[in-house]
Give the backbone structure.
Amino acid sequence: MTASELYRRALQVIPGGVNSPVRAMKSVGLEEPLFATRGEGAYLEDVVGRRYLDWVLSWGPLIFGHADPETVEAVVAAARDGTTFGTATEREILLAEEIVAAVPSVEMVRLVSSGTEAAMTALRLARAATGREPFVRFAGCYHGHADPFLSEAGSGVKTLGIEAGGEGHVVPYNELEAVERVIEGAGCVFVEPVAGNMGVVPPAPGFLEGLRRLCAESGALLVFDEVITGFRVARGGAQERFGVLPDLTVLGKIVGGGLPLAAFGGRAELMERLAPAGDVYQAGTLSGNPLATAAGLSVLRRLTPEVYDELERKGQRLDALGRYGRFERVGAMATLFVDDYPALFRHLLERGIYMAPSQNEAMFLSTAHGQEEIDRTIEAATSFFGK
């Protein structure tokens, strides 16, 4: 069956034919989505058997590439014992211990099922802990699709040109003076320590340190959304890489090893406000489910310093893309900003290279990307720009 046939069927039963808007690929000039059937390493295969070098990697979780054998084996073994129990398991504790050991600011952690859910609850917890409702966030940063976060929220909304309501004081990223003007009375400042949903935008020198200082002075909590950066730019995330500790941290993507799992954590006295220990309610039937915790443990236990050294070396080779536009990279996440991204996307796709179908998203390195894949990508870009 072709992609066109599948898309026609999908349009009859799924709004817009996709279950997440950017998959429609309208913004890069395609009439139908890419329908994937399997992945292996750095490669993705579609329904007609065409193979693509994949720089999207399911938007970041697959740091060891598609169908990583150790992760798959761990999930299969867990599934044989049952896919969900709705009660406590040892593996939840083991994964929580891995997170606490890795992320510098996290003393306790709660497992949930999506980054949106984790961010939504972190905001609820921050408001309860400070007794303040207002909060500060940044234009272009994405914290999931919960109502408070949705306006001016980065790639998804911007790509589709949708007007969305939201809450909070929304200020420009990397501008401390703008934060100073609105932080009075705020319960928290919510930020991606490396922006990843308006393309990759690193924090300006002193920006994260300044947020930490302003929060300490005002009594607001500092919340890092490390759904993308957690376990990607360093084992301990952006807070390890930049040496700035938030009060609360939101995690997703890599922490679940490619399965639906997210988390949020922070200092013990804050986290113990959560039910059943405290008065801030949060619950989830599939939170910490056996398959996702098995995948997460399999991945996190293998994220050694050598893995990050390898990813950095590969990233430095990929920096050669900077000759064709503004190339921003932090560790194993990057974006090439160019004048006509849709044309570049289609050019690369025709040559079997799959980039993010939006200029406002990141490309992700994995251990499965080798010199051959990097050289092939640079050569394909060269053929587009003609230099």
